[in-house]
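Usage

Read records sequentially. Each one opens with the input sequence:
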Amino acid sequence: MKKSITLVLLFVSTLFYAQGQGVIGKWKTIDDQSGEEKSVVEIYEKSGKIYGRVLEIFDASHRKDRCIDCEGEDANKPVLGLTVIKGLKKDGDEYNSGKILDPKNGKIYKCFITLESKDKLKVRGYIGFALLGRTQYWYRVK
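and closes with the structure output:
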């Protein structure tokens, strides 16, 4: 009986540990060119795909910015609350086959994200081939 309970507790704790290692959660974005902390993006799952929306913008002068250059359903929407990562699918250790929106210029790029460590996320946006793009590293908000 004690062995069974121990095994169940070990299994449950392993599940919780594995969930903590995933991409779901809140991430502090860091500008790859300036190194500045920009925002907090919440990554979540919906219908088996991964999405990310802007929860917080650190620079008070940009909190009311709108996505002026965005097209379609994102046109002129407030950046705060905007879904910037759309439709990523899990593929091994990577999430790919989705898009990422740069609200500064309204451009949409192909995207993949990879968990570099428990608290570090590699986010790559690119055009055509993954070699032609930019990489940012985001850090988990605790």
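Summary fields computed downstream for this record:
- Strands lie at 25-30, 37-46, 49-57, 83-91, 94-102, 107-117, 120-126, 133-140.
- The chain has a mean pLDDT of 88.
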